[in-house]
Amino acid sequence: MAAFKQQLPLFKTGDFTGFLVAVLAVLVVCVSRKRRRTGLAFPPGPPAWPLLGHLPLLGGRPHVRFSEWSRRYGPVLGVRLGPRQVVVLNDFESAREALVTKAEVFSSRPDLYLMRLFSNGGKVCWKAQRRVTDRALRRLGIGKVTFEGKVMREVDDLVSTMSDQHGGAFDPKYHVGVAVLNIICSLVFGEHFNHDDPLFLKLFDAFEDISHYGGSTKHLNIFPALRHVPVLNTGAVRTMAAVKKGREFISTMIGQHKATFDPSNIRDFIDAYLLAISKETDENSSSSPKKGENFLNEDELRQDIFDLFIAGTESTTTTILWALLLLSVHPEIQTKVQEELDSALGPYRDASVLDRPSLPYTEATILEVLRFRPTPFGLPHATTADTTLGGLEIPAETQVIINRWALSMDDRKWSHPDRFDPGRFLDPEGHLDVPVYFRPFLMGRRACVGAHLAKMELLLFLTSILRRFTIKPPEGAPAQSLDGHLGIILQPPSFQICAVPR
Q1: HSE-up of 434 (CA within 13 Å, CB side)?
Q2: pTM score, two decimals?
């Protein structure tokens, strides 16, 4: 029993005996539900436990365990998480087949408790939402020089804060987090907040709580009835409160924008979305609606903003933190980046997105951070019909997970994948050479909508920091583990650095 308990890292709070009683009660309900019979075979996987499936076998690093299993059972891996059958894709070929070749079948989302929580209990018209989001971001200059000023304002604030440490040890997590959050605020609300602004701190605390507690509620996707069990629902209660707080802030900002909206003066993402709603409303009022057509509304605007904050803050913040940690323990790589920056930019000028062609090693280092410590899973997909993948049959309504960790650590694609080596993204002449199978923001219809913004942020933050400082671990600090811990995404351990002025 003790050994079994140690294998259940998803459940870290509460009495274990009470947990088992609760799970068994929930399973009675789960297994009694009417099950769809398809007659289709399911992709292979290791033997599973009764009722709990593969949960007791996952350990604390399920992305690594799935990758290990795929070497034996194949890249299209069939597992069972409690009563749910799940397919895990562990190589580039199967991921591309699902997300690109058969996108029509694999672009749905499963009906999971956490996804309902984050989508306010309903489903959005994601195709219409994606269309207007892409247009709005392009209009606002995301990824282009025109948006650099808003990013550099936050970069400069972060550099100033790091300079105030005078080379002493500090934890960069909060300072990086508020800088990245403020960029999304500038994009969405058209407003830069002082870091001590009570409204801004309220928003920051809400998304910090979502990040902290959201990862501890994954078991509710498997056994949603546990949200009613005291102690076991603590993370869910805190997450729900944080989601509500974030949505209230967003609703307030939308209301302010509606009161001052001028279609001839689009200030930010909310204005761009309101303009799209207005145009579509006018078009639909003068023509007959088409069957199955998706229409925009304020609920979808609210959800889209919430999604932008979730996707655009934690992932970018975490990648910057991983970069700082990795560069602090690989000073030889950091020195090469600094030498390239000094040579390409001279003694005074900051980098711009226009400088990318002159910074191949810097670009390669950023790509290697994204490969070496990726977001392991991202949001799950679901099939809309019976289909096949890699010659294996997959029933309709099957949850599908892309194991990005496995794609990044595939030794058939990468030489020594467990080694941090930016040189793998350079050709023999030192030019940037990105293989087609490296897709850190995935691909297909559901590829990350904020990829261009994330790339800009990573370039401007890291180049500005390394132009001014050498990042070192504190004197006498023990060696840092680079395994990370899996919450909503793979986060680095708590660490301190010294930003020594150059």
Answers
A1: 13
A2: 0.89
In sequence order, what E strands does 102-234 have? Answer: 169-170
Binding-site residues: 448
Instruction: Give the helix/strand (H/E) hosting 81.
Output: strand 76-81
Contacts of 249 (CB under 8 A, 6+ apart): 199, 202, 203, 206
Please check whether residue 36 is in contact with residue 397, taking contact to mean a CB–CB distance below 8 angstroms: yes
The binding site for heme comprises 448
Size of the chain, expressed as the number of residues it contains: 502
Query: For residue range 310-342, what is the model confidence (pLDDT) as tens digits?
Result: 888 999 999 999 999 999 999 999 999 999 999
Specify the DSSP class assigned to residue 89.
Answer: E
- pLDDT, one tens digit per residue, over 420-461 is 999 999 999 999 999 999 999 999 988 888 899 999 999 999
Domain parsing of the chain, residue ranges = 7-165+173-285+292-317+364-404+434-446
Task: Say how far apart CA 364 and CA 417 lie, in whole Å.
Answer: 15
- The amino acid that residue 231 corresponds to is V
Pairwise pLDDT comparison (269 vs 28), residue with the higher score: 269
7-165+173-285+292-317+364-404+434-446 is classed CATH 1.10.630.10? yes
Six-digit token string for 254: 């939308």
| CA 328 from centroid of its chain's CA atoms | 24
Pair 234, 101: CB distance under 8 Å: no
Q: Is 237 left (phi over 0), alpha (psi -120 to 50) or beta?
A: alpha
Cα diameter, the chain: 72
